Amino acid sequence: MSLTHIQEQISKAEEKAGRKAGSVQLIAVSKVQPNERVHAVLQEGHRVFGENRVQEALGKWPAFKEEFADASVHLIGPLQTNKARQAMELFDAIHTLDRLKLATTLARLAQEIGNCPDLFVQVNTGEEDQKAGVAPQEADDFIAECRSLDLPVKGLMCIPPVDEEASLHFALLAKIAARNDLSGLSMGMSSDYERAIALGATHVRVGSAIFGERAYEI
Does residue 111 register a pLDDT over 50? Predict the structure, then answer.
């Protein structure tokens, strides 16, 4: 597959779902990808990318942003509080706000720095022990706490369990977002982004289908 193919599939899914063209943002997941692959996708004109780790992103995106000033980088992996300042200075959006300690840290840094990336609350829709995210029944209270800290919460994010029907989790996330008046839904990956778009996704995260298989040995 390729960037063009994924973009075409997203457009078809938007149309099929009765969504406005361009309403879904494609996040090209560039984690653990060689720089030349990322550079090639930038040269194709794509500008929104996703990274899992602060340190890895720091190693490549400052240089890429010098060449492509309009590039936007989203953190889609877990964020440790001790990396919060670096994350806020590098990323345009953080999709993994999942606990009060991180929220208070981001709020304090936002006051110091004078701005804050767009934030998405990660909801553990499958209530899986090994996954980060607030439990669905705790999401409303957590969103309210984040808002009380003046954090720019734009939406919600989830990663469904691999062995369950993803659509059920996308529908749950959309329901939580709607009752909290949040428009952003970061959900859907290479295997299920079309189903996510049908259920209201505003951001889909696609990696290997664009770049090829990840090169974990680098």
Answer: yes
